Structure formats: structure tokens, C-alpha cells
Amino acid sequence: MFRLCLLAAGAAAISTDAIVDDAETLRSALSHLKLDVRASELARLKEAPNLVKLLATARDDPHTLAAQLAASPLAAIAREVAPPTNTRDVTGALPIVTAHGMGDSCFNAGMKSVTAAAGKRVGAYAVCVPTADTTVGDTIDGFLKNMDRSVDAFAERVRKDPKLKNGFNALGLSQGNNVIRGYIAKYNDPPVRTFLSICGCNAGVAAWPQCSPAGKLIGPVCRALAEVLGDLAYLKVVQDILFQANYYRDPLRLKDDAYLSNSRLAHWNGESHANATWRANFLRTEKFVWVEGTRDTVVFPRDGEHWAAPDPADPWKGVQPMKQTAWYTSDAFGLRTADDQGKHAFESFAGQHIDFTDEELFGWLDKYFT
Ligand SMILES: *[C@@H]1O[C@H](CO)[C@@H](O)[C@H](O)[C@H]1NC(C)=O
């Protein structure tokens, strides 16, 4: 397994003028995102011309950026699920909230069908909660609205929906699970009762192998990630911008100051310090269902979907099972206590990333949401 960050980014050398231009573009693109950026960090972004270009595209031509995200090899777009024939009509079933993956949006046919089918199967109100009002905005947010800001936007919408006020069950696909997990840690009011995490990257990803299957980077999004998810990954500015940088967990940098101080995932998983509030919120959820695709090549290592971590002794080959990981033994965010309380369930399906069958989905819904 090679790491994307070891590859040459393939970015053409840029002239001094272009750097100045890019810095200006960047400054205005960042002001558009409403971020405060230190000058020294802004300068470092000169090393990331492809990211700067995508930031400019977000500002000037968001439709194009949304299309690039949806077409990128990183995209995890739900396919359409057929409405279940076998349904329940129960009053009082808990509502369901769904959250989508990278490149996808609540307004796409796949997420609409997953959400409608889940609600129909269980006999409950079901809603996909976006972080923006349009397909384009919601798609771009899965890239340029970092995990914390996405969680805040998600929480605001959840709290505005009166049907959710007594709590709900949550179903996430791919990185949508980071949004739900962040909501659980930081808000959980109204509470998530059962969290069904399908192919989630809450344990992080150590590499993006699908970006360069034959050693060649595919498309503008992968080129941008390749240059950013190396030395720059744990700069504050990069963590403030990029959702994928937030869950990129380089197994060789886990002791670095930059990782421990700035990585959102390190904070959430208690690798730098434990947060008692987040831990207490996590433990208010009654059931966690962690679903792994046994042929998933998008989340690396895929065992992370079950909270395993790359083995520090041999990060590219071996994994530590959940119970051996530091985030479990330290219990920094409640993973071990939740286990002691019998809250974890582990499921798997023989398929690629989020490529479960309708029957598998309905099986999990019947088992955990009714
Ligand atoms: C802990 O969580 C609280 C509540 O979300 C937050 O305000 C605070 O910044 C967090 N502290 C740290 C050190 O992460």
C-alpha cells in the first residue's frame, strides 16, 4: 500500500506571479468561507495550487466544483433503493435522520430514495439533513465545510425540525457518519437514540488509494488532496477548510504536535485530550451499529469502520482491533464504556464502499430501528 501523500502531486510549477495571484484568490476565497487565517499559514498554501484553484472554483463556478466532486473517485454517492414492499405502519416509531457521503447531497435521487425507503420500512418520519439548501451547496459542503462547521449546520437544521424534538435514529453513509458522530459528541440534544453507521470513517483514513489506482492521480479533486494531505494536512488553515483533511489520519504522524493540536479527528477521538462534555454526550446514545463493507477499498483500513486502527508496528499491513486501540483503552470519548454498557453492535456485508443491497439495508433497519 502506498500513500497518496508520497506521490508527486503532479502540479505544474507555478510562477511567482501566479503565486501572488493565487494568494489573492485564496484570500478572497477564504473570506468567502468566512475563516480567519494567519498570514504564515496562508503563505504555506502556495504549496497547494490545486486546492487554491478549487477554492476559486467554489467561489466563481460552484456548479462546476460540485460536478467535479460528484465525479471524483472519492465520491460515495448513494444508489437508488427500491421502496420496500414489506412495511410497517406503527405510530410512535422514532423519526430517522440520514446523512450523505462525499460528492453526494440530500437532494440527489439516491439519498432521497434511501431516506424514503427507511421511513417507509420502519413506519417513521424520515429526513435527510443537509448542510445547505441546494444540491450544489450541499455537495460542496462535503468538501469545503469542515467537520465542525458541517456539524453546526446539521445541528441547526435538526433543531429547527419540530418532528425531531424528542430524539431520532440516525443513519449515515460514509463521511456522513462523521457529521452524525460530531453531532452526537457536541450536541446530542435532541438525542440520537440509535446510530447506524454504514461504512463510516470515524476512525479516520490513512490513505486514499482510489485516487491513484495505477499510480496516476485522477481528476482535480484528487490532485488537490494529494498536495494537501501530506505535510500540509495538519496546518490549522487546512483543518479549518477541508473536511477530508479532518479525518485523514497519517499513522506515521500520530505523535506530531501539529496532528495533536490541530487534527479534528485527534480531538474528537481523544488522541490529544479527552473532553468530558463530548464523552457524556456520546454516552447518551443508546445503541451504536457499526457496519463494515468487507470489500471496501475506499476507507483505508476498512476495519476502521469497526473502530480498528492501523497497527503502529506495521501501519500499511496490520490493524489493531478496536479493543487494543488507544481510543478504546483510554476511553477518552466513551467507546469502552459504551462497550461495557452493551451498546455496540457490529455488522458487515460482502461489498464495496456503501454498496449494500436493499435487503441488507432493510435487515439493519428491522433489527435496530424498530
Ligand atoms: C470541550 O467541549 C466543549 C463543549 O463542546 C467545548 O466548548 C470545548 O471547547 C471543548 N474543549 C476542548 C479542549 O476540546
TrEMBL record:
MF GO annotations: palmitoyl-(protein) hydrolase activity
Catalytic class of the enzyme: hydrolase
One Pfam family from the record: Palm_thioest
Record bears the keyword Signal: yes
Keywords tagged on the record: Disulfide bond, Glycoprotein, Hydrolase, Signal
Transmembrane segments: none
Gene3D superfamilies recorded: alpha/beta hydrolase
Signal peptide: 1-18
Keyword Signal: yes
InterPro entries: AB_hydrolase_fold, Palm_thioest
Any GO CC annotation of this UniProt entry: lysosome
EC number: 3.1.2.22
Name of the protein in its database record: Palmitoyl-protein thioesterase 1
UniProt organism field: Pelagomonas calceolata
